[in-house]
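Most newcomers find our protein records easier to grasp once they have seen one. Read left to right, the backbone structure tokens trace the chain's path through space. Nothing more is needed to start thinking about how sequence determines fold. An example says more than a description, so a record of this kind follows:
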Amino acid sequence: MNIHFLTTGRVTEDARAAAEAAVRAALTGTHASTVSVRGTLSLAADASLPRPALAQAIATLDGRAHRVQAAARTVDEAITLLQDRLTVRVAHLRAS
């Protein structure tokens, strides 16, 4: 499984590693023969924004792209929301 996250702003290496782990957890059990994920983590410099952290991912499963994203107050919260949304998307794919 190929997972790669780019970062923008004051996003730590630990956060990038956490995002990769979250995506791996969300994709556990998928029966896709090919899986790759490209994503971004960003933190806006303006901390007064209501949701300055953004996590986005495009998971390609068997050649079909599935895009998920989440905005939150912190990068950790955005990663958790991203994992939840990707887990739901994968569950829906399994059911169909």
Notes: The two ends are 22 Å apart (CA to CA). The first helix runs from residue 13 to 27. The chain has one domain: 2-95. Residues 2-95 form a domain with the Double Stranded RNA Binding Domain fold (CATH 3.30.160.100).
